[in-house]
Amino acid sequence: WPNNVALLARWTSRSERGGIMAIWGTCYQLGGIFAKAFAAAMFGWLGLAASFWASSLVLMLITAIVIVWAHESPDACDVAPREMSDVHPEPPGNAAISNIPKVESANGSVIRTILAMGVIYFAFKFIRYAIESWSTLILVEHITLPTSTAGYLSTAFDVCGFVGVVVGGILSDRSTSRMPVIFAMTFGCFVTASLFWWVGLSSTTMFVILIGAMGFMAMGPDSLLSGAGA
């Protein structure tokens, strides 16, 4: 994933990076849905081992496509460089030496930002995998739905999360900073998670609405922190 972020950053400008990386980041939602469906189909057709081998062959095909067609940067294939308004080259010669205090101050700010992003990202990962891993079981055990129905309904988190990723990326491109979008959606995730704790098990409808709302609110900041923000 860090390699994907670095590659896309070299090919995109600041004003479009959020939207493009958001579309790329939907691999978390749509990719997960299709991968599970494909593995399940191969499992039913040829057995358990086939689900591993078939998935590996798909990855091998993607690797071949990257090797043949992907380029490190516009310069690597003689394409005119994009506008990179968020890239600031280092001052040459003595100017760089005279700028040492400012650089040290900037480095401190970067470290604080990285630590804050890490803490926030930890919380989002906790929510994401808790809902993805346990929502089906909760619907079966606490609301007594059939397993197949519970499995279908639990996809609301990923489906709404897909929308949240795209919306968050587009909004961040239109803002002077990505942080207001991350903050607003993070606060929305806090509100929906609190409602889920309070009334999430009151009915099937409420459960599905709230995990969908959490998916929308959580996946936007999740994608921005790991993509355009990084």
Overview of the structural elements:
By secondary structure, this protein is mainly alpha-helical. It has ten helices and no strands. The protein has helices at residues 2-11, 14-25, 30-46, 48-69, 93-98, 100-142, 147-153, 156-174, 179-199, 204-226. Helix 6 runs antiparallel to helix 7, helix 8 (156-174) crosses helix 10 and helix 9 packs antiparallel against helix 10 (204-226). Mean pLDDT is 85; it is low at 87-98.
List keywords for this structure.
flat, 78% helix, 230 residues
Topology diagram in text:
Layout: H1 2-11, H2 14-25, H3 30-46, H4 48-69, H5 93-98, H6 100-142, H7 147-153, H8 156-174, H9 179-199, H10 204-226
Helix pairs in contact: 2-8, 3-4, 6-7, 6-10, 8-10, 9-10
Helix segment tally:
10
Principal-axis shape equals: flat
Residue stretches low in confidence (pLDDT < 50, at least 5 long) are: 87-98
User: What's the total number of strands?
Assistant: 0
Average pLDDT over all residues: 85
Largest sheet: none
Q: Which radius of gyration do the C-alpha atoms yield?
A: 21 Å
Considering DSSP H and I runs of 4 or more, what fraction of the residues is helical?
A: over 70%
Strand content: under 5%
Terminal CA distance:
11 Å
Task: Look at the helices and sheets and give the structural class.
Answer: mainly alpha
Element order, helices and strands?
HHHHHHHHHH
